[in-house]
Amino acid sequence: MELESVNKRINFLKIPIDILNEKELEKTILELLENKKSNQIVFLSFKDIFKGRNNKSFKKLLNNASLVLPSSTIITKGISFLFNKESPVFINYDFVLKILSILEKHKKSIYIIGSNKKNISISEKNLKDSYPDLHLVGRSSSLYQRDKEEDIILAIKKSSPSLLLVGSGMKGKNKWIYLNSDKFNPGLTLWSPDCFEIFSGKKKRPSRKVSGRLFARIITSLLKPWRILYLIPLLAYYFLLVIYKLFKLS
Fold first, then answer.
1. 212, part of any domain
2. Category of 172 on φ-ψ map: left (φ > 0), alpha (ψ -120 to 50) or beta
3. Is residue 156 located within the same domain as residue 229?
């Protein structure tokens, strides 16, 4: 489901990633809203690289997503190494705020689901206060009985939001969106962990520097020897980058 107008999807270590210029974000969002499809946006973390290479169902999810955006500097530096292309790091929560601003500007709508009833209720109020021209067409906590899921999905379909924003507590996370995508009307779908906890003031907004603390994590691992196992996937990742570079693999 590559966005033709952007046309910057690359095959990175057998994982699809979109190189999106932040200046093109508004144009891209509006084009997705007009393509008459349910468009899933996925933030790709470092561990997702290996999950996508080894898990067929997750790889299929990524291939069918409309946007797969790198959320780690480890990934963006790898992109630069292999393709000589620059890609911004997309911080999940910051990206959500940018989308909300774009949707409000164009008087679009949103449906929120996830977290507990209290956090969702407070988030609804705060979103209405912060984005008065953004139409909130429905909400649901993630703490519902499984036999109620069909009713909730039907409510989402009927409300036909421009953005279905899914937060923590939803079993399956990105997979839940993907498995139900054919039941949603055209629009955007996005899983954002802790977004409603942040909107409701239960958690602090994450630092923009979190995704770039590679060396800090290495030092921590050295100070705590049992965490040295965390370096194994990192070394495997750099080994793959070198192999792909030397043999010009795609």
1. no
2. left
3. no
125 plus 230 within the same structural domain: no
Supply the pLDDT for residue 28.
96
Q: What is the mean pLDDT of residues 201-218?
A: 64
Who contacts 179 (Cβ-Cβ below 8 Å, separation ≥6)?
172
Higher pLDDT, 203 or 102: 102
| pLDDT for position 5 | 42
Give the mean pLDDT of 68-80: 95
Q: Give how many domains the chain has, as a whole number.
A: 2
d(CA 165, CA 102): 14
Q: Are residues 98 and 20 in the same domain?
A: yes
Name residue, tokens 């993907």: 178
Structural tokens at position 110: 């949103």
Give residue for tokens 């139409």.
Answer: 135
Residue found under tokens 């937060």:
167
Asked if residue 25 lies in contact with residue 102, where contact means CB atoms within 8 angstroms, the answer is yes
191 pairs with which residues across the strands? Answer: 166
Domain residue limits at 241: 220-246
Contact indicator for 99, 29 with CB cutoff of 8 Å: yes
- At position 171, the amino acid (one-letter code) is K
Q: Are residues 38 and 82 in the same domain?
A: yes
Is 31 contained in some domain? yes
Shared-domain flag, residues 16 and 73? yes
User: What is the pLDDT at residue 214?
Assistant: 53
Residue 136 lies in a domain: yes
State yes or no: pLDDT of 233 exceeds 60.
yes
Indicate the DSSP class of residue 202: S
Helix (H, G, I), strand (E, B) or coil at 104: helix
> pLDDT by residue (tens digit) across 124-164?
999 999 999 999 999 999 988 888 999 999 999 999 999 99
